[in-house]
Amino acid sequence: MLETSARLLRLLSLLQTPRDWSGADLAERLGVGVRTVRRDVDKLRALGYPVHATPGVSGYRLGAGANLPPLLLDDEEAIAVAIGLRTAATGTVAGIEESSVRALAKLEQVLPRGCGTG
After folding, report:
1. What tens digit of pLDDT does each residue of 31-87 get?
2. Which of 3, 27, 65, 87 has a C-alpha 20 to 30 A away from that of 33?
């Protein structure tokens, strides 16, 4: 089950990039067959992720939806987001101070040790 869950998260991460993916490309990246990719896409859809499919070369992409998918950031990206939120929380961007503080608190809870932003 863990292997499947990890693969679904990896698939979701790939689909978050702004491009279309063929089933064969996804299968190669995930180390599985095209049928497994189709089953995994169906699982993501059942979880509420709007995965769109176009027959032919274009393939799969993640559409806009009501729920935000998990945001998968590397350490440097997470630090950059935290710095931006800290800046916004100081009032430099009017009207989003409170939401910036809330988002920053959530992000700082999951930042790796030693990746503090201030």
Report:
1. 999 999 999 999 999 988 899 998 877 789 988 764 666 677 778 888 888 899 988
2. 65
Residue 73's closest CA among 109, 111, 103?
Answer: 111
* pTM summary value: 0.60
How far, in Å, CA of 53 to CA of 51, rounded? 7
Q: Is the Cα dihedral 10, 52, 62, 56 positive or negative? A: positive
Report yes or no: 107 and 81 within 8 Å, Cβ to Cβ: yes
What six digits make up the tokens of 108?
């700082």
CA distance 62 to 57: 16
From residue 97, alpha-carbon distances to 35, 80, 87, 107 in Å are 46, 17, 9, 15
Lowest mean pLDDT among 21-25, 29-33, 107-111: 107-111
